[in-house]
Amino acid sequence: MNNTFFQSTLKISILFAAFFSIFSTANAAGVLDKIFGTNGTVTTVIGNDAQAKATKIQTDGKILLLGTRGNGDVQDTVLVRYNQNGSLDAGFGNNGIVVSAFSPFFETANELSLQADGKIVIAGSFYSSVTQSIDFLVARFNQNGTLDTSFGTNGIATVNQGSNDFFNSVTVQTDGKIVAAGRTSDDDRTAVLRFNANGTLDSTFADSGALYFGSSTWHNEVFYAVALYPNGRILLGGTGYNTINSAGIDIIALLETNGTFAQDFGNSGTVLASPSSSSPGIAYDLAILPDGKFLAVSHLAIRRYQSNGTLDMTFRHSYSSLSFDVGGSDIAVRSDGRFFVLQRSGSHFVVAYNNNGRDINRFGNSIGNSSGTDIAVQSDNKFIIIGASGNNFVVTRHISINSPATRIADFDYDEKTDLAVSRFGETVYLLRSSQNVMSYRLNQNSGEGVRFIPEDFYSDSPSLFPLFYWRFPTQNAPAYFDSVTENGDYTSFQWGVSSDIPVGGDYDGETFRFSFPGYRKSTELAIFRPSTGTWWVYNRLTNTASATQWGANGDKPVPADYDYDGITDYAIYRPSTGTWWIRRSSDGGSSAIRFGIASDIPLTGDFDGDGKADLTVYRASEGNWYQLLTTEGFRVVRFGIATDSPVPGDYDGDGRHDIAVFREGVWYISQSTDGLKIVQWGNSGDSPIAVRYDQ
What we know:
Distance between the termini: 25 Å
Strand content: 35-45%
Mean pLDDT: 85
Number of strands: 54
Oligomer: single chain
């Protein structure tokens, strides 16, 4: 490559990098909703040492955020309400913000719940000058943010049991009664209290409205979560330690509506799980599912239980080995059964799971200079993450967490598509999105052909950013998956024959690694045999091979994640009829959709950021992209000319595939967030390397 090419390319690339660095996204995998706040993020000034604790979505789509401000012995409770677009709700409190000081000293608000009439209930603790101790606290606010004086004393109900009492969770029954759970220092016990709608303790529940319980073999017991079954039963989750061997335990309990233990659940109403020999699992959050099963998440595990308290062994994480990033702190379930888990500590991940517990993808849970603290799902399955940074509350809204089973040609593991070209099939020049330039010299024999594969096939040296390619002789003979690193290390694995098409993907949802850069899905060695319509997949991690019949002679492979379960689906485009045939991995079903004509180029990608691959064809004769998007519907975009090569990918790292073409060494990219980008990378006659299966 000549120096003039390098200089012009770098000059253009750096110019664009400087301009687009003004914009940023939380992480490509967590697709931000651009119509919320500023490109998906809202920041609200609250005051000294702001702490965001909990969030709820109202039935009208408005967002409530509960937290505190202040530090040491002086704290105030803060409620903020946002409109659906992220603006502060001027009809709530003082321009969307309510600050309440229940005590001139210490107080904390840990959770909130919504009543059917729109009133807001919060729970926590505060220091009482009367009892000179930290007491249980429940407060209720009207829809406009004022304290509801019909509840307790001027909107506040308090209970003293020990010297340090606090609630961690609260929920409202259909009859308006309020259930709150936490811990009392009195005999070191868990606590569950039920209040009438007017704030008095409900004498029909347990012992005069309160249930305190523990065991001589436990200590430091505390409840973190409470949830209600439709029949009024009360599900509780928490943690404790075994006094005999100091082993940590998850505590899950089910109460009847009168506060007695449900005898048909677990062991006389309780389930104890021991995920660690020395650290409690801490059942931080619970989610009751429509079929009566429930999810329990701790920082060490995610489990699904039957309604009687036994583990649901059809759920993947109920029986998988525990590892450092399997669990979490908060859980939010979508209407389709998929769910998100947020980690507040450790690896700081937000993870999307499909219905059976397989992880789809994850992204860094980072807001400002700290991690997110709660997550909630809207009725349209978009999700909210809250957190705090310095003196500010921060809220982000996401469309989805994208699926790595739909590929983007990312060579440096930063969730952005990189620019790469092949020259004479011998040398590859790569411009990584991190602005590092790399070149690779291929190891091939005379007369052999090459297909370049922008995939990650579980390299033995991932930090060296290997390039993978498919090397095949001109005759119908064995072909090879090869890789070469920037320092020249070379590997080769024979799989398939020269007439096959390499179709990398994660076809079983199990292929991943933790070593670099912390978590990443990788790819199985796979080929599509056009002559028979057979897919041959080899998994290097498990050393197993499989053959799947899906297609016929003349079909073109278009593998991607079409059902949003984190697994690559077998799919083909049949030019003779313009039909897409997709075999869904989520349920084993299939679909046939006519979309395109014989001369179209079929392309894969998630262009609307909902986690599902969209049907896309490029009609070169018109320069038009025809798309059937799973969320946004049909659209036609004119971008390109007849001689262009379509190269879709996520170039701006926002979780959406971008429309892009390569033209005689120049990349024209219509970025979904950052707009038009033009970069010279290559010369006339070079071939672009992109996620294409038709070449």
